[in-house]
Write a structure and sequence with these properties.
Blueprint: E1 7-11, H1 15-27, E2 31-35, H2 38-47, E3 52-56, E4 58-59, E5 62-63, H3 64-74, E6 80-84, H4 89-97, E7 102-105, H5 110-141, H6 151-164, E8 170-173, H7 180-190, E9 198-202, H8 208-216, H9 233-236, E10 240-245, H10 252-264, E11 266-267, E12 276-277, E13 280-286, H11 290-295, H12 301-307, E14 310-313, H13 324-339, E15 344-345, H14 347-355, H15 361-375, E16 380-381, H16 383-386, H17 391-409, H18 422-444, H19 449-456, H20 460-470
Helix pairs in contact: 2-3, 6-7, 13-15, 18-19
C-alpha cells in the first residue's frame, strides 16, 4: 500500500494566493488542508494532524499568532512556518520567538516554499524518530512507565521528553501522591545523565539541623560526633541527577546556600572551606504553592525562579478519571503476582473507584487496591473490599453530622467533659479545639498535609505530630 503524502495545513485569507500555494504544494507531493482564517484553522487542527502548518500573519478573523498558539496547544512539536509581507519581518521574528520554526516573505517563491516545507517535515520526522529511539532505550534501561492516556498526562509526558533533552533545572509541581518522583525518574532515565546516579532526598523528612549535612556533607570534627568526613547528596549525585523532594519545606537559612550550589555547582562541606565542584542536574518537587510562599517571605524568590526554569505540573487523579481503570488494573496485576492471587475487578468495583475523589491520588489508589486484594477471598474484588465512601455516601454522613450539630446548637457544651480540676478541663478544651481546626484544615486541603500546614501556619512536622496524637 502506498504511503499517504504528508499533510500541510495552509492558512491564507486571500483565495487566489491560497489556490496558488495549494497547487505548488500538491505538485511537490503534499496533501493540503485549506483554511481561510483563524476559525477554519482551529477547526482543521481539531480534525486533522498536519505534519506542517503554513500560515499568513495577517488574517481577516484573527492573526497568525493565534494560529501558532492553537497549533502548539494541539501538538507542541508541530512545525509552524509563517508568511509575511515585505516590511513585516519584525512580526515574523516575534512569531519565531513564540515557537514558529521559520518564516517566508511574500511574494512567495514556490521553489523556496517547497524547500522550506521539506526541511520542516524532515525535522519533524527526525524529532519523532529520536523520540521513539529514546523510548526504546528508556525501556531497556528500566525507566519507569507512567500509566495513563488522559490528555493532561500526555502533556506531562511531552514535557518530560523535552526536559530530558536539556540539562536545565526542573520544578515538578503537584499534590501529594500524584507521582512526582516517578516523573523525576523518567526525566533522569531519558536524559544524557541516565548512566549516572539518581539521588533523592526528602527535604520534609529530615530534621532542619541535619538537612544541610545531608545535602552538602561534613568534614571530620565539624561537630560533636563527626568522627570522619562524610560526602553529601550533591557529591554522590556527581554526573547524575539530584532530586529535591518537598523543596518547599527547606528552611530559609539553607535556601541561600542551595541557590549558590545550583547556580555555580560549587559548595563547601559543613566545617570545611575548600570549594567542591560537581556536575549535577537538579530536579525539585513540591506539593506546596511556592508563589504564595514567596509572597509571604517564606521561600526565596531568587531560588524559586532558579528552580522553575522548566516547570512540570502533574495533574491530580480526580482530573484524569479515565485513567483510574488503567491504573487499577496495573496495581491488581502487580499485587496479584506478589501475593500469588489471580483476581479481577467487578464492573461495580470499577464504578466505585471512579466515583471516589482520591484526595491521596495514585498513592491512595495503590494502597486501596493492595488492601482489597488481601481482603478478597474469591477471584473477584467487590465494592465492599475497597472500603471507600462514594460522594453520595460522604454526603449522607455529612448530613448525619449536621443533624448532630443542630441538636447540640441549643447547648453546644452539653457533650463536653467538664469533670476534674480547671487545668484538666482547659487541656481537654484546647485539644478539642486543635483537633477540630486541624480536621477542618485537612478537609479544606483535600487531605494534602502540606497545604493544611500552610493554612494553619505551623511547621509540617508539628502538624504530623498532632495528626498522630489525635489519631486523625
Amino acid at each position: 500500500m502506498a504511503q499517504a503524502p504528508p499533510e500541510i495545513l495552509l492558512v491564507e485569507d486571500k483565495e487566489s494566493l491560497r489556490r496558488m500555494l495549494r497547487l505548488a504544494l500538491e505538485q511537490g507531493g503534499y496533501a493540503v488542508v485549506e483554511a481561510a482564517g483563524f476559525t477554519d484553522a482551529a477547526a482543521a487542527l481539531r480534525d486533522h494532524r498536519p505534519a506542517l502548518v503554513l500560515s499568513d500573519l495577517r488574517l481577516g478573523d484573527g492573526d497568525g499568532f493565534g494560529v501558532l498558539r492553537q497549533a502548539k496547544d494541539a501538538d507542541p512539536d508541530i512545525p509552524v512556518v509563517v508568511m509575511t509581507a515585505y516590511g513585516g519581518v519584525e512580526d515574523a521574528v516575534r512569531a519565531m520567538r513564540e515557537g514558529a520554526l521559520d518564516f517566508i516573505a511574500k511574494p512567495v517563491d514556490p521553489d523556496h516554499l517547497l524547500l522550506l516545507a521539506g526541511r520542516a517535515i524532515e525535522q519533524r520526522r527526525l524529532l519523532t524518530e529520536n523520540f521513539l529511539l529514546r523510548e526504546e532505550l528508556a525501556a531497556r534501561r528500566g525507566v519507569p512507565h507512567i500509566i495513563g492516556e488522559h490528555e493532561s498526562l500526555r502533556k506531562v509526558l511531552q514535557n518530560v521528553q523535552r526536559a530530558a533533552g536539556s540539562d536545565t533545572t526542573i520544578l515538578i509541581e503537584g499534590e501529594s501522591g500524584t507521582g512526582k518522583e516517578l516523573v523525576a525518574h523518567a526525566v533522569h532515565g531519558l536524559s544524557a545523565r541516565s548512566n549516572g546516579p539518581f539521588v533523592a532526598i526528602n527535604c520534609a523528612a529530615i530534621p532542619e539541623n541535619l538537612l544541610e549535612t545531608e545535602l552538602f556533607g561534613y568534614e571530620k570534627g565539624a561537630f560533636t560526633g563527626a568522627a570522619q568526613r562524610k560526602p553529601g547528596k550533591f557529591e554522590v549525585a556527581h554526573r547524575g541527577t539530584l532530586f529535591l523532594d518537598e523543596i518547599g519545606d527547606m528552611p530559609l537559612a539553607l535556601q541561600a546556600k542551595m541557590l549558590r550550589a545550583i547556580e555555580e555547582r560549587r559548595f563547601e562541606r559543613v566545617g570545611g572551606n575548600a570549594p567542591l565542584q560537581v556536575d549535577v542536574r537538579v530536579v525539585a518537587a513540591t506539593n506546596r504553592h511556592l508563589k504564595q510562599m514567596v509572597a509571604a517571605k517564606r521561600f526565596r524568590e531568587d531560588l524559586y525562579f532558579r528552580l522553575s526554569v522548566f516547570p512540570i505540573v502533574v495533574p491530580p487523579l480526580r482530573e484524569r478519571p479515565t485513567d483510574i481503570p488503567l491504573l487499577a488494573q496495573h496495581f491488581i496485576e502487580r499485587f496479584g503476582r506478589d501475593l500469588k492471587k489471580r483476581v479481577t475487578l467487578t464492573p461495580a468495583a470499577i464504578e466505585h473507584l471512579c466515583a471516589y475523589s482520591w484526595p491521596g491520588n495514585i498513592r491512595e489508589l495503590q494502597n486501596c487496591l493492595e488492601r482489597a486484594l488481601i481482603l478478597a477471598e474469591g477471584e473477584t474484588i467487590q465494592p465492599m473490599h475497597l472500603q471507600l465512601q462514594t460522594i453520595s455516601e460522604r454526603a449522607a454522613s455529612e448530613d448525619t453530622l449536621r443533624d448532630v450539630v443542630t441538636a447540640l446548637a441549643a447547648n453546644p457544651y452539653a457533650a463536653f467533659d467538664w469533670s476534674g480540676p480547671l487545668a484538666d478541663v482547659s487541656r481537654r478544651a484546647l485539644n478539642e479545639a486543635e483537633k477540630y481546626r486541624i480536621r477542618q484544615a485537612l478537609d479544606e486541603a483535600a487531605g494534602d498535609r502540606a497545604r493544611a500546614a500552610e493554612a494553619l501556619q505551623v511547621p509540617m512536622r508539628f502538624l504530623q505530630a498532632k495528626i498522630k496524637d489525635f489519631g486523625l
